[in-house]
Amino acid sequence: xxxxxxxxxxxxxxxxxxxxxxxxxxxxxxxxxxxxxxxxxxxxxxxxxxxxxxxxxxxxxxxxxxxxxxxxxxxxxxxxxxxxxxxxxxxxxxxxxxxxxxxxxxxxxxxxxxxxxxxxxxxxxxxxxxxxxxxxxxxxxxxxxxxxxxxxxxxxxxxxxxxxxxxxxxxxxxxxxxxxxxxxxxxxxxxxxxxxxxxxxxxxxxxxxxxxxxxxxxxxxxxxxxxxxxxxxxxxxxxxxxxxxxxxxxxxxxxx
Length: 256
Known about the structure:
By secondary structure, the protein is mainly beta.
């Protein structure tokens, strides 16, 4: 009788990991890296209003430096509680364009220019900004074009900070709301901000329930540094046909 031999078993091969696992891992690392970079270093924003014309217009895509002033609860995601107002905190320079959370509505992100710092005495008289008893020099440059409302007459005016920083603002003329502001000393922990479109900006000249009021330092997200690109009104990510509807001359433009 012939003894039957059992069929030899095939050697089991270890299960190979799915080829999707490395892909998901790499994507996860890339996303985490991007989020970390955006949280700690630079973050993009889009300009939603005309209050910073002529330097910034609706549709500008800007990059904000978060490390310029250190980090606060407002500049970090999910609003984590911090023991200090700012980690490695530094004051803005006079004339810096700052992005911040509106004090009365922290979910709203606003942008204005820092005009006066803690301890400064600021006053506005007939549209002239006076800091520590010295008017900021202004030079009339001639008519401008309000991109948001082209039929609204505006004048281009160059304004200069004591340190030499020079930028252009819009003025609509005398006797406008906000042209006069009683003297105030900016308290510790706050800055006084204004929009460059002086007669179309709700800023520190107005109480917090109307505009910004005095801006707490801990509400600052960062310093606006560069206009990466600018889209004409109506462009949106969900409208692919508008992706290339770009304004010329507004690529990698430094914010003054």
